[in-house]
Write a structure and sequence with these properties.
The chain has about 290 residues and is an alpha/beta fold. The chain contains 7 helices and 10 strands.
Length: about 290
């Protein structure tokens, strides 16, 4: 990676006024990257929280700025809302230069972390760690385990589904697990099909979400068969809402936290920056110059 000591990095999260943990991954990875001292500065901003996306440029004076969305898929937020708020495009525009010179600075709008192929290693790391941390009665071998990647799914956008199915294909090609499957909250195949898909007795479910929240803490555990009153009681007591592993319907099921706080995501962020460095170099864009 080329020298970044004159550049600012801005991590962009969704944020939520209802769930404080929604912003945690952005702060975690920003802190980790500050510690590496690669950038002149590292900032966080959010769609639903302060500091806002539209105001994040105030106080940033670096000649180069890299914006990295901490989102799973390309879609409405990453292709319309965020670039509009940053001034990369006007309302309704979806095609725009991702590297722009503005005010004598080069601004780089990177792709979301969730669609980068190195997210495969993040998912595999999360799947390995959950069974290693809860090896009851013993750690199952991947070849004796079905891996399920869980997503939200929506009829409004195909991209959310595509990013998960792409990761499923990449992991399946490695032939490590007995089977690799995509499951969804709001599309078929649903979360509940964990018990009817795959032939292995062991199953590991990894939510492909950036942050933990009501979906990962409540909805998915209940879709996996845990009673609502049990889930809510555990949540109120500050306990994990799913006991690893849980025996149900002839399967032993491990359920991991969302992937957003996996430490290796910091490296995925740097990969996105590296890509945009190459794009800027090929376009011959530099600070204090005009775009071609």
């Amino acid at each position: 990676m080329n020298d970044l000591s004159d550049a600012a990095l801005v991590l962009i999260g969704h944020g939520s006024t209802l769930n404080a943990e929604s912003s945690a991954p952005a702060y975690q990875h920003a802190d980790a990257l500050r510690g590496r001292r690669l950038f002149a500065e590292v900032r966080e901003c959010f769609w639903k929280l302060e500091p806002s996306i539209s105001g994040v440029m105030r106080g940033i004076f670096a000649p180069r700025v890299f914006f990295v969305p901490l989102f799973i898929s390309e879609g409405y937020f990453t292709e319309e809302v965020i670039p509009r708020e940053l001034g990369f495009c006007a309302k309704g525009e979806t095609q725009f230069p991702r590297v722009q010179v503005r005010g004598g600075r080069v601004l780089h709008y990177c792709g979301p972390v969730g669609t980068h192929e190195s997210m495969t290693e993040v998912l595999l790391s999360r799947a390995r760690s959950i069974v290693m941390n809860y090896p009851f009665p013993s750690v199952p071998k991947p070849a004796e385990t079905d891996l399920f990647i869980a997503g939200h799914g929506t009829g409004n956008s195909e991209n959310s589904r595509k990013s998960i199915e792409h990761q499923v294909d990449l992991i399946a090609q490695r032939h490590q697990y007995a089977g690799v499957h995509a499951i969804f909250m709001e599309e078929d195949p649903k979360i509940e099909t964990v018990y009817s898909r795959g032939n292995a007795r062991n199953a590991v479910v990894v939510p492909f979400f950036i942050s933990d929240g009501l979906h990962s803490y409540e909805d998915i555990p209940m879709m996996l068969g845990e009673r609502e009153d049990v889930v809510r009681a555990r949540l109120s007591a500050g306990q994990p809402t799913w006991r690893n592993p849980t025996e149900r319907r002839g399967k032993r099921v491990w359920y991991s936290p969302s992937i957003g706080n996996e430490p290796s995501i910091a490296d995925v962020i740097l990969e996105r920056v590296r890509q945009m460095q190459s794009l800027a170099a090929s376009a011959n864009l530099h600070p204090h110059t005009n775009p071609p």
